[in-house]
Amino acid sequence: MFERYEAGERAVLVHLNFSREGEREDLEELELLVSSAGVSACGIITGSRNSPHPKYFCGAGKAEEIAALVQAEQAQVVIFNHALSPAQERNLESILKCRVLDRTGLILDIFAQRARTHEGKLQVELAQLRHLSTRLIRGWTHLERQKGGIGLRGPGETQLETDRRLLRERIKTILRRLEKVEKQREQGRRSRQRREIPTVSLVGYTNAGKSTLFNLITDAEVYAADQLFATLDPTLRRIELDQVGPAILADTVGFIRHLPHDLVAAFKATLQETRQADLLIHVVDAADERSGENIEEVQKVLEEIEADEIPQLLVYNKLDLLEDVSPRIDRDDSGRPIRVWLSARENRGQEQLFLALSDLLGRQIVELSLKLPPSDQRWVNAFFELNAVQDKSYDDEGNCLLSIQLPESEWLRQLKGSEGRLSDFIIE
Q1: Which of 46, 52, 266, 291 is deepest in the core (most CB within 10 A)?
Q2: CATH code for the part of the protein at 10-101
């Protein structure tokens, strides 16, 4: 479905610095993305602008400079470290005489290379089709008008319209299939909730070492490499924790700055494992100078998928790249673990991580008594579905007296869904 790279393809990279902070990208991250896609960079062109040029994004003079480098290096593709509009892509291709790819297209191609499971391939194809639907005209400019003349009069639908209709139908088919996958995942989650098995989800910036840590904890053999988006398909494993018992650990796709919205939408089923988790292990590359910025970017994506309310444990990984830092647990004033320092590659700090997980998951069960008026009986069914009801009775006025026991994260989720009204029904 997508234009895939060939091994050893040569690319010219383009990186512009904008005055506005929100539009800035990282050149080093672009080089990592290109390397992860299997492409060799034969030249880099940088520049500065106050705002993107409406026609060429980089300006006419800079476009001619790129064209000269493309010709000198015999490059097959130009990769921009920014999001381009379909019109800008077409205008650049006409002047550069080669393929032009933006940051979103590059990430999509890496995802296409990494997808292994049926679900992962469907999600990537969905993201590609949504991205491609706005760029269809590029491939069909010679068929924009209907042909006329004897034997060439058709039913009145141009090739472009036909392709758009086929794209819409294919997107609907993929969404139906992903809906089935989501129902299966939901059944698994409800089964775990009924058995009161907590779920812990690994999240973090791409290449922070999540899969290496996952393999260390679970003795799994998930693919782990020093490259961006090495993990794409979610993997779940069972672990045993002291004072807690069995728990489910989920490894998920890494996040990145300005993660394309099409990808966030397409991977909703995968990210659902994160949204429904009882605890998030936020893995951070401790040796990365931009670790603070990366944490902020992950928080933005968590907020976008409505997972920012779930309790988090920060895990600073790759201590082997730092000097004079040993594995430890940092706690807040109440003694609650907030950070763990470890090295997954050298198997240092696993004991501290398990101790922190046991401490957090052991504390996370909340017990409450609620007095629900007749007008709010729907919450009774909601708590029964969560298998949280311990006791139920009614008073003379028809109010439901409910004793519930459930994970703190689930209570916070229900509280947010009620816009805080449930807190009014708590019996002190």
Answers
A1: 266
A2: 3.40.50.11060
